Amino acid sequence: MIPLFHDFTDETVLVFGGGPVGARKARRFAREASVIVVSPTFAEDGYGEVQRVRAAPAPSDIETWIERAEPALVVAATNDPAMNDAIESSARSRGILCNRADRAGERDVGSVVVPATVRDGDVTVAISTGGRSPALSKELRKRIEREIQGADELAELTAEIRDRLKAADVDAAARREAITRVVQSSDVWKDLGRGNSNPRQTADAVVEAALGDRT
User: Fold this and answer.
1) What span, in angstroms and rounded, lies between the C-alpha atoms of 192 and 173?
2) CA torsion angle for 146, 147, 150, 156 (degrees, to 10)?
């Protein structure tokens, strides 16, 4: 499988299943999408800003639900494999992406996997073990979480530096070299998250040194 990022802004995600797994999926997609969760019962309140519909559709009703919602993605998160089969089949027949929460490891062609993720602002790292080891995904997520603290601040800082150098007609190769040095600088990383101007000042010094080395 090849990982891709999908922008769900102004899209709808339809989740079948109101248990803990369905709730977790709903929270994840509610970051961007309008989420509808369909279930006869809801096990917990932690669904986030989603629309919960209390209903118990039969497998033969699934296509009608999908047609009505017009989702970009359908999530099959019920505890009934036959129902999840019907959900997946209906989504595929309409050319809609489908994520089955009851499957790990081997996947059908065209299926969607929702990986473990680590976020720092707009910086996102996705983790997958091919469904073989959720425990390893969880451990890697904790480790990466520590490593990328401040990454969003650095992304914003380097974007500003790139724009400033471009406006100053610094050639592309020199810009790349300067920004590479900034993101590799241990001093810059140490200054991130302090809420003051230190990262910017440190980064500017790194950029100045990088440009000086090219003259």
Assistant:
1) 26
2) -140
pLDDT in tens, 10-68: 999 999 999 999 999 999 999 999 999 999 999 767 777 899 999 999 999 999 999 99
Distance CA 203, CA 205 (A): 5
Task: Record the tokens describing residue 81, joined without a space.
Answer: 């494999």
Per-residue pLDDT reduced to its tens digit, 100-132: 988 765 566 567 888 889 999 999 999 988 878
What tokens were used for 71? 């989702």
User: Using CB atoms within 10 A of its CB, is residue 73 exposed (0-12), middle (13-18) or buried (19+)?
Assistant: buried
Query: Among 178, 167, 173, which residue's Cα sits nearest to residue 209?
Result: 178
Work out the angle between the directed axes of helices 151-167 and 198-213 (0-180°, nearest 10): 50
- In angstroms, the CA 137 to CA 123 distance is 18
Rg (CA), the chain: 22
Instruction: Tell me the C-alpha distance between 87 and 134, whole Å.
Output: 24
Determine how many CB atoms are found less than 10 A away from the CB of residue 215: 5
